[in-house]
Write a structure and sequence with these properties.
There is one protein chain. The chain is mostly helical. It contains two helices and no strands. Keywords: Membrane, Transmembrane, Transmembrane helix.
């Protein structure tokens, strides 16, 4: 069982490991777009938490 946001990437991995034929364009595109969205959301969350830590002075070096 795979979580729904990771389903296209897991589908591509299972097809590549089992030799299940060629990849379709929409699956590759959706896996790429989801990976790009995860990276962008991760960077936004990291920037937000960094700003929050600096404003509140939670860590000693700030």
């Amino acid at each position: 069982m795979v979580y729904l946001p990771l389903a296209p990437a897991a589908h591509l991995l299972s097809r590549s490991f089992s030799g299940g034929g060629e990849w379709t364009e929409w699956v590759v595109l959706s896996a790429f777009l989801q990976a790009l969205l995860f990276v962008c959301f991760g960077l936004l969350a990291l920037g937000y938490m960094h700003r929050l830590v600096r404003l509140r002075g939670i860590l000693g070096r700030y």
